[in-house]
Amino acid sequence: MRSKIEDRIFDPRGAKIAARNTGPAKMATDRPAAAERSRSLMHGIFVGEVQALEGAGRTCYDFDDTEAPFQLKLDMARQCWDEARHCEISLKLGDHMGTEIGEYTESTFLFSAACNPDPVLRLCGVNRALEGLAIDVFSTMKEFGNESGDPVLEFCEDWMLADEVTHVKMGSDWLRRITASDKERQQEALEFQRTIDKLFSFGGFRGESEDNPVHLARRFRQMAGFTEDEITELVDVAAEAHAEAIARSEAAATASGA
Ligand SMILES: [Fe+2]
Ligand SMILES: [Fe+2]
User: Fold this and answer.
1) Based on C-alpha coordinates, what's the Rg of the chain?
2) Which of 66, 174, 195, 232 gives the lowest tally of CB atoms within 10 Å of its CB?
3) Which residues neighbour 26 within 8 Å (Cβ) at sequence distance 6 or greater?
4) Contact 58, 115 (CB under 8 A)
């Protein structure tokens, strides 16, 4: 079933769950909802992989060589190969974790970002913002696999993580290469990336504190071509979103007379 990303992120039940204050939202192994959380996240990863495969395939096909250099298309073709493998791995991990395809609602947000008419905006929105998010999600899942004593999950996430670092690096390199003499286009692409990054930091989903379900993987982001300033900016956005989420849950608790 398909849902809108805004409905999922701004689901009013999120503030109520946070108001119960039952401990970190993170998939800690001592949390009762850890199994459910990890299965739902795995389902989301699988759907993201399918859309990433479609998106990279489109970029090989949609542009002529003046709009997107042939070497960029070769990178996208390599990415298709990786994403196809990730689809298979994620599907098998879903089986391994006991999840059926279609058990959770999903959005087609990544595919929408991959349909942007400017290839540079696609690379910023998909490769840098959403696959950057995949780096954070995969390293969190890998850690969960390690803590829960599941080497299959741990190693699969580690292999996919290595590929995602390469995909984000492709985004960083092509952004700088193509817009080297067009700062306006570069700013427009970075703004597109910022909008997506903010969306996925809402509700305190991603950050550096124990309470955040997904942790920002600094080291892998450096390897993927993020500058220190860019990482600091992401951390600030996440901290701001986390503070807003706490204020919202406190307001919800006050309104319900708790
Ligand atoms: Fe992937
Ligand atoms: Fe990827």
Assistant:
1) 18
2) 66
3) 140, 210, 211, 212, 213, 215
4) yes
- Whether pTM > 0.90 for this model: the answer is no
140-163 per-position pLDDT tens digit: 899 999 999 999 999 999 999 999
Q: Where are the domains of the chain?
A: 29-255
Ligand closest in space to the Cα of 83: 1
Ligand lying closest to the C-alpha of residue 45:
1
Q: What CATH number has the domain spanning 29-255?
A: 1.20.1260
50-106 residue pLDDT tens: 999 999 999 999 999 999 999 999 999 999 999 999 999 999 999 999 999 999 989
CA distances from 159 to 85, 155, 164, 167 (A): 10, 6, 9, 13
The alpha carbon of 31 and the centre of ligand 1 are apart by a number of angstroms equal to 27
Q: Please report which confidence band the pLDDT of residue 207 belongs to, taking 50, 70 and 90 as the band edges.
A: confident
Q: How many Å lie between the centroid of ligand 2 and the Cα of residue 55?
A: 10
Look-up: residue for tokens 């305190």? 204
